[in-house]
Amino acid sequence: MKKRSAIIKRKTSETDIAVVLTIDGKGQSSVQTGIPFLDHMLTLLAKHGLLDLKLKAKGDLEVDIHHTNEDTGIALGQALAKALGNKKGIRRYGSFAVPMDEALIRCTLDISSRPSFYLKKFPGVRLTRQAKYTLDDAADFLRSFCQHAGINMHIGVLAGEDTHHIVEGIFKALAKALDMAMTRDPRVKGIPSTKGKF
Known about the structure:
There is one protein chain. The chain is of the alpha/beta class and 198 residues long. It has helices at 36-49, 66-84, 135-149, 163-182; strands spanning 5-11, 15-22, 29-32, 52-59, 93-100, 103-110, 116-121, 152-159. The strands form two sheets. The chain has a four-stranded mixed sheet, covered by helices on one side. A hairpin with a 2-residue loop joins strand 5 and strand 6 (103-110). Helix 1 (36-49) packs parallel to helix 4 (163-182) and helix 2 (66-84) runs parallel beside helix 3. The relative contact order is 0.20.
């Protein structure tokens, strides 16, 4: 069966990004965004989602990380949507919970072409240890990713204190939920929607 893949190039006055993505991969990656923690998260995403990913981004990091972070989410989302194509035969839904030391994260998603993003911190979650790459930074990335990938995603931070552990748990849970949702199921005939299209 043909591998699902895409190449996306996105250039603005603030960023220049190139993405090569293969959904049916082996988890191999080469990521250079200029934001070390985001590089680490995208490497984890590829590894645990069994994606092959080459991503290079240059942005106005002398200002701050916002444009590069957000535009990387846009470009990766566009690549995923392109690689999925018409979505025939996919399971469509995915949900996974990941423990990361004291943190517990749940990601539930629907590749529905109706994008939205929700992040909820449950009672008792206290960010007592911060990081250079914040939970807000992760939310900005994921919001852009979902918008351009056509994904409805809910992230639940069920427990946690260390921002690093929480964000890492989010990306690992996303990887596993995506893998589940994008998997082709031989029992699924055509588009996985009663409407017959997304």
